[in-house]
Protein backbone atom coordinates (compact mmCIF):
# COMPACT_ATOMS: atom_id res chain seq x y z
CA UNK A 1 0.00 0.00 0.00
CA UNK A 2 2.85 2.39 0.92
CA UNK A 3 4.67 1.38 -2.25
CA UNK A 4 1.51 1.90 -4.34
CA UNK A 5 0.94 5.37 -2.79
CA UNK A 6 4.60 6.24 -3.40
CA UNK A 7 4.36 5.19 -7.05
CA UNK A 8 1.11 7.15 -7.51
CA UNK A 9 2.77 10.23 -5.99
CA UNK A 10 5.78 9.76 -8.26
CA UNK A 11 3.57 9.54 -11.34
CA UNK A 12 1.64 12.62 -10.22
CA UNK A 13 4.91 14.53 -9.74
CA UNK A 14 6.22 13.34 -13.12
CA UNK A 15 2.99 14.42 -14.83
CA UNK A 16 3.14 17.77 -13.05
CA UNK A 17 6.78 18.20 -14.06
CA UNK A 18 5.93 17.38 -17.67
CA UNK A 19 3.10 19.92 -17.63
CA UNK A 20 5.44 22.58 -16.22
CA UNK A 21 8.13 21.66 -18.75
CA UNK A 22 5.55 21.73 -21.56
CA UNK A 23 4.28 25.13 -20.45
CA UNK A 24 7.88 26.42 -20.26
CA UNK A 25 8.59 25.19 -23.80
CA UNK A 26 5.35 26.75 -25.03
CA UNK A 27 6.20 30.10 -23.40
CA UNK A 28 9.80 29.90 -24.72
CA UNK A 29 8.44 29.16 -28.19
CA UNK A 30 6.12 32.18 -28.02
CA UNK A 31 9.03 34.33 -26.78
CA UNK A 32 11.22 33.20 -29.69
CA UNK A 33 8.46 33.83 -32.23
CA UNK A 34 7.78 37.22 -30.63
CA UNK A 35 11.51 38.06 -30.78
CA UNK A 36 11.71 37.12 -34.48
CA UNK A 37 8.58 39.14 -35.22
CA UNK A 38 10.13 42.09 -33.39
CA UNK A 39 13.29 41.92 -35.54
CA UNK A 40 11.19 41.70 -38.69
CA UNK A 41 9.10 44.66 -37.57
CA UNK A 42 12.20 46.77 -36.85
CA UNK A 43 13.68 45.88 -40.26
CA UNK A 44 10.40 46.70 -41.99
CA UNK A 45 10.22 50.07 -40.19
CA UNK A 46 13.91 50.73 -40.94
CA UNK A 47 13.46 50.03 -44.66
CA UNK A 48 10.48 52.38 -44.76
CA UNK A 49 12.49 55.18 -43.08
CA UNK A 50 15.45 54.54 -45.41
CA UNK A 51 13.18 54.76 -48.46
CA UNK A 52 11.71 58.00 -47.09
CA UNK A 53 15.16 59.57 -46.58
CA UNK A 54 14.60 59.90 -42.80
CA UNK A 55 18.29 59.47 -41.94
CA UNK A 56 18.25 60.70 -38.33
CA UNK A 57 15.05 58.83 -37.38
CA UNK A 58 16.45 55.68 -38.99
CA UNK A 59 19.67 55.93 -37.00
CA UNK A 60 17.77 56.53 -33.72
CA UNK A 61 15.62 53.46 -34.40
CA UNK A 62 18.52 51.13 -35.22
CA UNK A 63 21.11 52.30 -32.67
CA UNK A 64 18.82 50.92 -29.95
CA UNK A 65 19.66 47.48 -31.37
CA UNK A 66 23.44 47.89 -31.60
CA UNK A 67 23.94 44.85 -29.32
CA UNK A 68 21.79 42.64 -31.53
CA UNK A 69 23.12 39.40 -33.00
CA UNK A 70 21.07 39.81 -36.16
CA UNK A 71 23.25 40.53 -39.22
CA UNK A 72 20.32 42.15 -41.08
CA UNK A 73 19.88 44.70 -38.30
CA UNK A 74 23.60 45.29 -37.89
CA UNK A 75 24.45 46.04 -41.53
CA UNK A 76 21.48 48.40 -41.67
CA UNK A 77 22.84 50.16 -38.57
CA UNK A 78 26.26 50.41 -40.27
CA UNK A 79 24.60 52.00 -43.30
CA UNK A 80 22.51 54.37 -41.17
CA UNK A 81 25.60 55.45 -39.18
CA UNK A 82 27.45 56.17 -42.41
CA UNK A 83 24.49 58.06 -43.90
CA UNK A 84 24.27 60.22 -40.77
CA UNK A 85 28.02 60.94 -41.06
CA UNK A 86 27.46 62.13 -44.65
CA UNK A 87 24.99 64.86 -43.63
CA UNK A 88 26.32 68.43 -43.84
CA UNK A 89 24.80 69.15 -40.40
CA UNK A 90 27.03 66.49 -38.76
CA UNK A 91 30.18 67.88 -37.14
CA UNK A 92 33.67 66.69 -38.14
CA UNK A 93 34.20 64.91 -34.82
CA UNK A 94 30.79 63.21 -35.09
CA UNK A 95 31.59 62.14 -38.68
CA UNK A 96 34.77 60.45 -37.46
CA UNK A 97 33.04 58.66 -34.57
CA UNK A 98 30.17 57.51 -36.78
CA UNK A 99 32.62 56.18 -39.40
CA UNK A 100 34.39 54.01 -36.80
CA UNK A 101 31.07 52.91 -35.26
CA UNK A 102 29.76 51.96 -38.71
CA UNK A 103 32.84 49.79 -39.33
CA UNK A 104 32.32 47.97 -36.01
CA UNK A 105 28.65 47.29 -36.78
CA UNK A 106 29.50 46.00 -40.27
CA UNK A 107 32.30 43.83 -38.86
CA UNK A 108 29.91 42.35 -36.30
CA UNK A 109 27.31 41.70 -39.02
CA UNK A 110 29.95 39.80 -40.99
CA UNK A 111 30.92 37.76 -37.92
CA UNK A 112 27.28 36.83 -37.34
CA UNK A 113 26.61 35.84 -40.95
CA UNK A 114 29.50 35.43 -43.39
CA UNK A 115 27.01 34.56 -46.17
CA UNK A 116 25.22 37.91 -45.98
CA UNK A 117 26.11 39.86 -49.12
CA UNK A 118 25.14 43.24 -47.60
CA UNK A 119 27.45 42.65 -44.62
CA UNK A 120 30.40 42.21 -47.03
CA UNK A 121 29.34 45.26 -49.03
CA UNK A 122 29.01 47.59 -46.04
CA UNK A 123 32.14 46.28 -44.36
CA UNK A 124 34.10 47.22 -47.50
CA UNK A 125 32.44 50.65 -47.72
CA UNK A 126 33.04 51.42 -44.03
CA UNK A 127 36.64 50.19 -44.18
CA UNK A 128 37.23 52.62 -47.05
CA UNK A 129 35.63 55.46 -45.05
CA UNK A 130 37.93 54.88 -42.08
CA UNK A 131 40.89 55.15 -44.47
CA UNK A 132 39.83 58.76 -45.13
CA UNK A 133 40.62 59.54 -41.48
CA UNK A 134 43.79 57.44 -41.21
CA UNK A 135 45.56 58.68 -44.33
CA UNK A 136 46.47 57.53 -47.82
CA UNK A 137 48.84 54.78 -46.65
CA UNK A 138 46.06 53.02 -44.70
CA UNK A 139 43.56 53.56 -47.50
CA UNK A 140 45.85 51.99 -50.10
CA UNK A 141 46.84 49.25 -47.64
CA UNK A 142 43.18 48.26 -47.22
CA UNK A 143 42.46 48.40 -50.96
CA UNK A 144 42.81 44.68 -51.72
CA UNK A 145 40.67 43.66 -48.72
CA UNK A 146 38.01 46.17 -49.80
CA UNK A 147 37.88 44.79 -53.34
CA UNK A 148 37.75 41.19 -52.06
CA UNK A 149 34.68 41.97 -49.94
CA UNK A 150 32.97 43.73 -52.86
CA UNK A 151 33.66 40.71 -55.06
CA UNK A 152 32.34 38.34 -52.39
CA UNK A 153 29.17 40.47 -52.13
CA UNK A 154 28.66 40.16 -55.90
CA UNK A 155 29.21 36.38 -55.73
CA UNK A 156 26.45 36.21 -53.11
CA UNK A 157 24.16 38.63 -54.98
CA UNK A 158 25.15 39.16 -58.66
CA UNK A 159 22.23 41.56 -59.21
CA UNK A 160 23.21 44.17 -56.65
CA UNK A 161 23.96 47.16 -58.87
CA UNK A 162 25.43 49.29 -56.06
CA UNK A 163 28.20 46.81 -55.29
CA UNK A 164 29.06 46.49 -58.99
CA UNK A 165 29.20 50.32 -59.15
CA UNK A 166 31.54 50.38 -56.14
CA UNK A 167 34.01 48.02 -57.81
CA UNK A 168 33.87 50.45 -60.74
CA UNK A 169 34.77 53.28 -58.34
CA UNK A 170 37.64 51.15 -56.99
CA UNK A 171 38.96 50.62 -60.54
CA UNK A 172 38.52 54.30 -61.43
CA UNK A 173 40.44 55.39 -58.29
CA UNK A 174 43.39 53.13 -59.09
CA UNK A 175 43.37 54.11 -62.78
CA UNK A 176 43.45 57.79 -61.75
CA UNK A 177 45.98 57.33 -58.94
CA UNK A 178 48.77 59.98 -59.00
CA UNK A 179 52.43 58.90 -59.15
CA UNK A 180 53.21 59.59 -55.47
CA UNK A 181 50.35 57.30 -54.38
CA UNK A 182 51.61 54.62 -56.76
CA UNK A 183 54.98 54.86 -54.96
CA UNK A 184 53.22 54.29 -51.62
CA UNK A 185 51.40 51.28 -53.11
CA UNK A 186 54.71 49.88 -54.35
CA UNK A 187 56.13 49.97 -50.81
CA UNK A 188 53.05 48.22 -49.36
CA UNK A 189 52.61 45.41 -51.88
CA UNK A 190 54.98 43.13 -53.77
CA UNK A 191 52.52 43.48 -56.67
CA UNK A 192 50.61 46.76 -56.18
CA UNK A 193 46.90 46.79 -57.16
CA UNK A 194 46.26 48.47 -60.51
CA UNK A 195 43.34 49.08 -62.85
CA UNK A 196 42.31 50.94 -66.01
CA UNK A 197 39.52 53.30 -67.03
CA UNK A 198 38.31 50.62 -69.47
CA UNK A 199 37.84 48.20 -66.55
CA UNK A 200 36.02 50.87 -64.53
CA UNK A 201 33.75 51.61 -67.50
CA UNK A 202 32.87 47.91 -67.82
CA UNK A 203 31.69 47.79 -64.18
CA UNK A 204 29.68 51.02 -64.46
CA UNK A 205 27.88 49.61 -67.52
CA UNK A 206 27.32 46.28 -65.73
CA UNK A 207 25.74 48.19 -62.83
CA UNK A 208 23.47 50.07 -65.23
CA UNK A 209 22.43 46.81 -66.90
CA UNK A 210 21.65 45.24 -63.51
CA UNK A 211 19.40 48.18 -62.51
CA UNK A 212 18.96 50.97 -65.09
CA UNK A 213 19.04 54.56 -63.78
CA UNK A 214 19.40 53.31 -60.19
CA UNK A 215 21.97 55.85 -58.97
CA UNK A 216 22.91 59.37 -60.02
CA UNK A 217 26.59 58.75 -59.21
CA UNK A 218 26.81 55.80 -61.59
CA UNK A 219 25.57 58.07 -64.40
CA UNK A 220 28.12 60.71 -63.37
CA UNK A 221 31.01 58.24 -63.39
CA UNK A 222 30.00 56.82 -66.76
CA UNK A 223 30.34 60.38 -68.07
CA UNK A 224 33.62 61.02 -66.23
CA UNK A 225 35.14 57.74 -67.42
CA UNK A 226 34.22 58.44 -71.04
CA UNK A 227 35.90 61.85 -70.64
CA UNK A 228 39.06 60.09 -69.40
CA UNK A 229 38.89 57.93 -72.53
CA UNK A 230 38.44 61.05 -74.72
CA UNK A 231 34.97 60.05 -75.92
CA UNK A 232 33.17 63.37 -75.51
CA UNK A 233 30.01 62.28 -77.33
CA UNK A 234 29.33 59.42 -74.90
CA UNK A 235 30.49 61.56 -71.96
CA UNK A 236 27.89 64.20 -72.83
CA UNK A 237 25.16 61.54 -73.06
CA UNK A 238 25.79 60.19 -69.56
CA UNK A 239 26.54 63.56 -67.93
CA UNK A 240 23.24 64.87 -69.30
CA UNK A 241 21.45 61.90 -67.71
CA UNK A 242 23.20 62.64 -64.41
CA UNK A 243 22.18 66.31 -64.62
CA UNK A 244 18.53 65.42 -65.28
CA UNK A 245 18.38 62.80 -62.51
CA UNK A 246 15.69 63.70 -59.88
CA UNK A 247 17.54 64.82 -56.74
CA UNK A 248 16.21 62.87 -53.73
CA UNK A 249 19.30 63.05 -51.50
CA UNK A 250 22.13 65.46 -50.71
CA UNK A 251 24.43 63.27 -52.80
CA UNK A 252 22.10 63.57 -55.82
CA UNK A 253 22.30 67.36 -55.48
CA UNK A 254 26.11 67.23 -55.34
CA UNK A 255 26.16 65.00 -58.44
TrEMBL record:
Description of how the protein assembles with itself and partners: Interacts with microtubules.
Record key words, sorted: Cytoplasm, Cytoskeleton, Repeat, TPR repeat
Species for this entry: Cariama cristata
Name of a matching Pfam family: RMD1-3
Domain of life: Eukaryota
PANTHER family documented for this protein: REGULATOR OF MICROTUBULE DYNAMICS PROTEIN, REGULATOR OF MICROTUBULE DYNAMICS PROTEIN 1
Name of the protein described by the UniProt record: Regulator of microtubule dynamics protein 1
GO molecular function: microtubule binding
Gene Ontology cellular-component annotations: mitochondrion; mitotic spindle pole; spindle microtubule
Family from the record: Belongs to the RMDN family.
Primary localization class, coarse: cytoplasm
InterPro entries the record matches: RMD1-3_a_helical_rpt, TPR-like_helical_dom_sf
Subcellular location: Cytoplasm, Cytoskeleton
Amino acid sequence: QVLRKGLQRGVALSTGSLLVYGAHKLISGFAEVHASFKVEEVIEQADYLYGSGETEKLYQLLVQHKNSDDAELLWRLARASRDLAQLSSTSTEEKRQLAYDALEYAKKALEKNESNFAAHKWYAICLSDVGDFEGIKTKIGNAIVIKEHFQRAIELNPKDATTIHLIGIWCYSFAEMPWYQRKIAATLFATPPTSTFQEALRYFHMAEEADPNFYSKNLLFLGKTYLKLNNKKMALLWLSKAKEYPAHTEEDKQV
